[in-house]
Amino acid sequence: MPTTVFTIANQKGGVGKTTTAVNLAAAFAEKKIHTLLIDLDPQANATSALGVEKQEGRSLYGPLRGEGTALEMITPTSIEHLAIIPSEEDLAATEIELAQTENYLARLRTVLEPLRASQGFRAIIIDCPPSLGMLSMNSLAAADYLLIALQCEYLALEGLGQILKNVERLRTAGVNGALEVGGVVMTMFDVRTNLSRQVVDEVKKHLPDKVFETVIPRTVRLSEAPSFGKTIFAYDPLSPGATAYRNLAKEVIARFGLLPLK
Questions:
Q1: Which pLDDT belongs to residue 262?
Q2: Contact, 159 vs 174, CB < 8 A?
Q3: Nearest 10 degrees: CA dihedral of 16, 149, 70, 74?
Q4: Which of 43, 83, 175, 177 is the most exposed place for a label (fewest CB within 10 A)?
Q5: Spatial contact of 66 and 242, defined as CB atoms under 8 Å apart
């Protein structure tokens, strides 16, 4: 069964992108779906959110420069069926260095080919930096599907248009003709305001088939969990945030036919 690569991207920071990457990956693992999380953000928030220590030489920095392989960088986590390729600060240099290489937008896709071929993972989730720089564009070029984490506020709608334009550019330039918008995850939903509901409705008008039914609530527990190096399921398994991410995982699994590896 082929490996499905998802990238979770948004050029805006603080929209719940890393929270979604980490907890969606953990929710897949709960369902016995072998999952690899790739932390492509030099800030390494996804790495620390899983309680994994940053180590020099364990990120994709080397492989992207042609030194070592992605397979060598896979690090186990405390969660069964979930592994990670951690991040490190050196990845920040990749933004500049990649621009000077040949086929600079396809570097990550090339690096991930042996991982896909190994079929050791059913799903790969890439967490990107909060910008549409070289690393994010490489992740879009390497992915089958883009999952957009979108905060329930009006300014988020402007960012959505920018991301969709970039997807179209990559398609038409032949960099990744197969890239699809897999879905939009509405995050930081505040049940006390009309604004959250209005933003969800507005996005559904623009992308009627893409918005996931599950909305991720704005909760303190989701914000606290990463500082303890834990997913929401380990930190507060019965919280509204945990319930939401489990429901989101069910939707993603159903939408893309993700089955556990035999």
A1: 63
A2: no
A3: 40
A4: 177
A5: no
CATH number at residue 247: 3.40.50.300
The Cα–Cα gap between 152 and 56 comes to 36
Number of domains in the chain: 1
Structural domain contains residue 262: no
pLDDT of residue 157: 77
Q: Which residues contact 197 (CB under 8 A, 6 or more apart)?
A: none
Return d(Cα 68, Cα 111) in angstroms, integer.
Answer: 10
User: Does residue 204 contact residue 198 with C-beta atoms inside 8 Å?
Assistant: no
**Contact, 198 vs 51, CB < 8 A?**
no
pLDDT averaged per 10 residues, the chain (length 262): 90 81 97 97 95 92 94 96 96 87 90 93 95 90 95 81 88 91 92 84 90 94 95 96 97 92 66
Q: Is residue 90 part of a domain?
A: yes
Q: Note whether residue 183 is domain-resident.
A: yes
Whether 261 maps to a domain, the answer reads no
Range(s) of the domain holding residue 121: 4-256
